[in-house]
Each structure stands twice: as C-alpha cells, then as structure tokens.
Amino acid sequence: MSFLSPALTLLEKIITSRTEAPCGVPRINYLEPPGDPGIFGPASVTWRVLSNPASVFIGGITAVLLELAEPSVRSGVWEHTNFRTDPVGRMRRTGLAAMVITYGNTRDAEAAMSRIRRVHEVITGVTPDGQLYRANDPELLTWVHVTAAYGFLNAYLRYLSPGLTRADQDRYYQESLKVCGYYGLSSVPNSVAEVETYFERMRPRLQHHEILAEFLALVSNSPVISRAALPVQRLLVQAAIDLLPPWARELLRLEKGQRLRVAMRPAVGAIVTLAGRVIRNGPPQQAQQRMRAADSDRE
Asked: What is the model's pTM?
C-alpha cells in the first residue's frame, strides 16, 4: 500500500496534466469563484457524464469518427486544424475545452466558447467534390454538437452507469442546449428519441473515407499520456469503435474485429473504473470544491 499510493498520485498528475492549459495560455482555476456553478452546475447530468477521463476519451473518439463521416466536417477538420501534424496537442486542447466549458466558472466557460466561435468564423473551404462549407454553418455545428453529446453519454452508459434512466439521458441532451446559443444554434435534437431520428436523417450524407484510417492510426499511435501507456490507449480506441451504432461501423468499414472488441469490454471497464479512482483533484473534483466552498462561507 505504501508503494501504491505514490504510484497512483503520479498517475493522477500525469493524466490531469493532459487537460492543462498549454504554454502561453492562462491556467484555468476551477476553484474560483466560490459558488459559481458555471454553465451546468453540480446537480446536472452533464457533470456526471464528463467526470471520468477514460470515458471521455472513448466518447470523444466515437464522436470524431462520426464527425469525419460527414464530408464537409471532414474537410474542415483535416484542412484547417493541425491534427495530422500534432495529434496529441490537438487532443489535449480539445480535452481542455471540454473541461473548461463543463466545469469552469461562468466567465471562463463563456470565454472558451467565444474563442471557439471566433475560430469557426474564419474557416471556409471546398470539399473534394466541390461543395462549399463554412465551419459556423448551423447544420455542420449541429452534427458536431450532437455526435459529441452522443459519444460522451454512451461511453458513460456502457462503462459507468448502465442504469441511467431514460429521463436523465433526455435531461443530459436538454442541458447541452445551454451551450448551443453561444454557437448560434437554435434548433438541436434534445432527447434520446430526437437524436436517433436525427441520425437516421443524416445517414444518407455520411460516407467512408480513407481519412478515417489515418485518424485511427494517429490516435492509436500518438501517446497522449506516455509511450508506455499506448497499449491501454489503443484498447480505449477500440472501445470507441465498439461504441459506434452498428450501422455506422458497417458504413465506415470498421466491423472487422468487432467480436474481439465486445470481448474486451470487461478490460475496458476496469480501466475506466481505475481512472475514476485515480483522479482525485481534476477539474470535476475542483469544481465540486468550488461549490462546497460557497456552502462553507454561508455557515
């Protein structure tokens, strides 16, 4: 036990450092100001769903696989981000944005969303088949928003809370509407049933592309935590493929190895559980401290 405690502390430090602000960007203080609930607050389903780093990693990869199936989103991501040249940096910045928007105080969360919207405003292009696109197109933003929400929720359902009620799942999607206004979205699917219907409507627009294989190679072989942890990272990537709807795995030509992925679920569940136990002072825990500090001040 004397060896295990320092090892877990080191592991926590390594994992949480992957969602810290990069050099030159002000460090996010999730502890201040006391009592500020941010965009969602401690009673939200959203705070529960995004509380585990391994689950969030799995859900995030699932979301990006779905996003890259849409031609305009695929072109925007691949042509206007540095994912190919700096996949780890890109994943860390995406993870940081998710943590700040979910657990940051109101000012920091709103500032993060404003920055993202400003970046989107200048991104335009043409897909290989000649279709014009704009990153702040409401249709494209809706696809990105819904796939992210879907990925995070379903990773949480599979590995952390299979018994989450349908009402709470619907509430999770409804809570996500709180960020939609910042991106100019006024009509977004906000229940499990509406998301399922939306996916059916989007299916004719989705397609397999060789970029998907390139993306999977990058997220499987670029060490997010450390090179020694790559086998675990690759297992989580496979879990993300497993999380895709069956029709999406077939469409994206990712059915190969599905039986093995299903057999791996207990091992993935153990990793997710361990990650939840290791992290004791990450953004979710600090946000909870921020709220408890306000209760202490009132006593």
From this structure: 0.92
